[in-house]
Design a protein that fits this description.
alpha/beta; about 375 residues; Metallo-beta-lactamase, Chain A; disordered N terminus; 10 helices; 9-stranded mixed sheet
């Protein structure tokens, strides 16, 4: 294969994609949007679902289009928007101009008190999706061949029926209280539309940026979801989400954190994950400045800063890091992603495209 002149990112990604999968596999690509979200699912019939579109601008748009091309796709069959914040919908309109989109899914009108949703975006999105849009409610399913995708949360409403494997009392709810979220200026996070995806015995969960109180409403007093194999950490691993009520009840075998260097990856989120029963590994899109030495081993991190930058973070006094936890960071080039290939028997393989490191997780007994 000729590789002359290809960028390093494309060389590495092409090699990782080419380890290529069983044609009967479900493929998942966690695209690096520097602390936003964009996740591509490709079913066994090659039907596609893209969840969120990262930030506005050419960077994230280009990364999504590159991933579609490397995966051999020329269209998006289903485009799911968890909520309307710029790190989740930023590239949506531009992407729809470049790539055909079959159908749109979202939670409906943005939260009335949210101060950062763009009215201009909503007008353009309403026009773009007209006649091809489903406002999802808990229990609704996405008609995607070969997989079952069930809405479990949307616009402050939560699943009321038990999924297969769900229905047990959630012992993690005992003594847990709601928190005061009235001061959040971005309450559309709590309206996030989330789903459970099932492919045979394999199960994955994506709840967007659902916050603590929504997790309690979804998971207490009964865990209607059951357990999952793969959990995309809610809200980029920020402490406002990813409560023990959610994570410990789900008992994920693997978690993937869509954090940036300066966004998400909070120490509290790491503690909850590592205390979760049955967690085998945490994979990260970035090394978190906030968590420092308690990040996952480098093999499990898709994007690392250079040694000098990491050393500077590790040796900086605490006051130098204050105020650096929520914002974005400079673009990392090349940018690498995390890829998952799952089989109907429940086994799956996770690959870090930066270094080609893969780990296979056998099906649960």
């Amino acid at each position: 294969m000729r590789t002359f002149g290809l960028p390093l990112f494309l060389l590495a990604a092409t090699a990782a994609f080419a380890q290529s999968p069983d044609p009967a596999a479900l493929e998942i690509y966690f695209i690096d949007t520097e602390g936003g979200q964009s996740t591509l699912f490709i079913g066994p019939t090659r039907e596609s679902l893209l969840v969120d579109t990262g930030n506005a601008g050419e960077r994230d748009l280009g990364r999504i289009i590159e991933t579609l091309g490397l995966a051999g796709l020329d269209r998006i069959d289903h485009l799911w928007t968890t909520h309307y914040h710029g790190d989740h919908v930023g590239a949506l309109l531009a992407l729809a101009e470049r790539v055909p989109v079959g159908h749109f899914y979202d939670h409906g009108e943005p939260h009335a008190n949210d101060r950062i949703v763009s009215a201009e975006f909503m007008l353009a999105y309403d026009e773009l999706s007209r006649g091809r849009r489903t406002i999802v409610r808990p229990g609704d399913e996405v008609p995607m061949a070969g997989v079952d995708i069930t809405t479990v949360a949307s616009n402050g409403l939560y699943l009321q029926e038990n999924l297969a494997g769900g229905g047990e009392p959630n012992s993690s709810c005992a003594g847990v209280e709601r928190v005061d979220e009235s001061a959040y200026f971005d309450p559309d996070n709590g309206a996030s539309a989330g789903f459970v995806l099932r492919y045979g015995r394999f199960r994955a969960l994506d709840l967007g940026d659902l916050t603590w109180n929504g997790e309690l409403d979804l998971m207490c007093p009964v865990n209607r979801i059951g357990t999952v194999d793969l959990y995309l950490t809610s809200h980029h691993g920020l402490a406002q989400s990813g409560s023990p009520v959610l994570v410990h009840a789900l008992q994920p075998r693997v978690a993937v954190m869509n954090n940036g260097t300066l966004k998400g990856g909070a120490p509290a989120a790491f503690r909850v994950l590592h205390e979760s029963p049955g967690l085998e590994d945490l994979w990260q899109l970035h090394w978190s400045y906030a968590t420092k030495l308690d990040n996952s081993p480098g093999l499990f991190i898709a994007n690392l800063d250079d040694d000098t930058s990491v050393a500077g973070v590790l040796t900086a006094p605490p006051e130098a890091m204050r105020g650096r936890g929520r914002g974005g960071a400079a673009s990392h080039e090349p940018a690498y992603l995390i890829r998952v290939s799952a089989l109907e028997d429940g086994s799956f393989t996770v690959t870090n495209t930066r270094n080609g490191f893969s780990k296979t997780y056998a099906a649960r007994p």
